[in-house]
C-alpha cells in the first residue's frame, strides 16, 4: 500500500469515527470517505478491528510526533505548554465526537487485549513525557527536589483522563482541569528547592 | 410492580450487565436471571434503554444511601472514609466488569440525553458530598480557610473518574490514586489555618 493510500484511509477512518462513533462504524462508512471500495479496504485490513488497530497505531505516531514536542525555555514553561496543548479548550464539535469514539474504545479494552495494548502506549507516552520534564526541572533546580516525578506524572495522566471522561459523560468543561493543572505547575515551580540543585 | 419484583429485576440487571457488558446486553439476558419472562419485563419497561435508565436511578438511590454516608469524628476522617470507600481496592472480577459496563454507558452519553442526565446526578452527588465535608472542615478549623471547597471537590471527582477510566482502559491500579488522595487529605488537614476559625 502506498503512503498516500494509507494516509487517505487513516483520514477517512478519523472522519468516519467522528460521524458514526465506534459502535456503529462499518467498513462501508470508511470506504465512503475514500476513493477506494470496501473490497480494497478488506484487502489491506482483515476486519474493522484490524483497521482500527492500525488507526490507533497511526494516531500514536502522530501524538508522539506532534503533541509531545516540548517547547519552552524552562521545564515549567515546557510543562505548561504541554498541558495547554493536551487540554486545549475546543468548541469544535468534531473534536468532541472524536473524544467520544476514543472513550468508546477505552470501554472496550477489557474485552480486547489488542486495544488495551494500544491504549497503554498512549498512557505510557503521556506519563513518560511529563516525568522527563519534571526530572529535568528538578535537576535544573526549577522544581522542588522532594517532588516524585513518577507519582506526579501519574497524577497528571489521571487528571487528564478524568477531565476527558467527565467531558464526554456529563458535559464537564475541560478548562477547569486545565486551569487547575496550570496553577499546580506554578506551585511546583514557585516552591524554591531547599537544597540547591547542582 | 411490587418492591420485591423491582429488586429482583434490578439485581438481575446488575448481574447481566457484569456478564454481558452494556453493548451486548439483551432483555433476554436479564430475564434469564429472574423468575420472570421477557414479556413481563417488556410489560414494565418499554425497552432495554428504559430498563437501564430505571437501573441507573436505582443505583443512584443506593449510592446516596449506602456510599455517601459520612462516618468519622472529624471532617478529615470523614473525607478519608469516603475516598476509602469510593476507591476501595477490589480484586473482585465482577466489580471490574461492572465498572466496564458503567464506562460503556458513559461513552454513550453524548448520543443519549437521558443517560447523561442520570450520570450527571452521580457526578453532582459526589462533588456535593465532598464539598460539604470540606466546607464543614473549614468551619471547624480542620482545613485551611483559603481552601476552595468547590474547586477541590471538582478536583477529587476528576481524579476518581480518571482512576476508574485508566483502570478499565489500561489496567491501571486504582490504589495509586486512592493513596494520592488520602495523602492529599492529610496535607489539607495538616496545614494549620493561619486565621483561626471560630
Provide an overview of this structure.
Two copies of one chain form a homodimer. Chain A has 198 residues and is mostly helical. Chain A folds into two domains: 66 residues, Homeodomain-like (Arc Repressor Mutant, subunit A); 130 residues, Orthogonal Bundle (Tetracycline Repressor, domain 2), CATH 1.10.357. Helices cover 72% and strands 0% of the residues of chain A. Chain A is built from nine helices and no strands. In chain A, helix 7 packs across helix 8 and helix 8 runs antiparallel to helix 9. The longest helix of chain A has 27 residues. The termini of chain A are far apart. The C terminus of chain A is likely disordered. At the A-B interface, helix 6, helix 7, helix 8 and helix 9 of A face helix 1, helix 6, helix 7, helix 8 and helix 9 of B.
Helix-strand layout with pairing:
The structure is a homodimer of 198-residue chains.
Chain A: H1 3-20, H2 27-31, H3 38-44, H4 48-66, H5 75-86, H6 93-108, H7 113-139, H8 149-170, H9 174-190
Helix pairs in contact in A: 1-6, 4-7, 5-7, 5-9, 7-8, 8-9
> Quick one: biggest sheet of chain A?
none
Low-pLDDT parts of chain A are 192-198
- The backbone outline of chain A, from C-alpha atoms, is elongated
Do you know the CATH architecture of the largest domain in chain A? Orthogonal Bundle
Largest interface (CB < 8 Å): A-B, 39 and 39 residues
Kindly provide the radius of gyration of chain A, computed on alpha-carbon positions and rounded to a whole number of angstroms. 19 Å
The mean pLDDT of chain A is 92
- Find the structural class of chain A using helix and strand composition: mainly alpha
Distance between the termini of chain A: 52 Å
